[in-house]
Amino acid sequence: MIMKYLPLFVLALLLFGCAATHQEGTDYNTIYMERCLSTGMMAVGLDDVLREETGLPAIDGMYIANVEQGSAAYSAHIKTGDVLLQVGDEQVYDKETFAKAFLAEEGKKTTKVKIYRGGGILTLDFPLTL
User: Fold this and answer.
1) Which CATH superfamily is domain 2-127 in?
2) Domain limits of the chain?
3) pLDDT in tens, 27-47
4) Angle formed at CA 71 by CA 126 and CA 18, multiple of 5 degrees
5) Burial (Cβ within 10 Å: 0-12, 13-18, ≥19) of residue 18
6) What digits encode the pLDDT tens for the residues 13-27?
7) CB of 46 within 8 A of CB of 63?
8) What is the C-alpha separation between 130 and 70, in angstroms, rounded?
9) H or E segment to which residue 129 belongs
10) What is the C-alpha separation between 25 and 59, in angstroms, rounded?
């Protein structure tokens, strides 16, 4: 029953989540949304409530709530329910670190991402351009 409402819970987290963090005039919330759209995955930071709802262990990362078919994330074999841990050399655990990690990879054709899936950590090639 709880899993039935998980997409609504994730949407609420996206809409009412943390305010954007600003550093030197950078709006990481906007960059985060742009990267979600360009990569084809919607990711939300893990908190205790989401961990309990999904049965995930106490790890830091971004829960993949949705992957758009035909997107870069889809091509990298990322799946809904995965937890994004790292992009390139940057750890990812909230909107700001997600935005910064993808900004650090700009200009590259691919990067490595680490994800948590099914009790293990996988390293995948992630296309930055399709």
Assistant:
1) PDZ domain (2.30.42.10)
2) 2-127
3) 788 888 888 888 999 999 999
4) 80
5) exposed
6) 444 443 333 445 667
7) yes
8) 9
9) none
10) 30
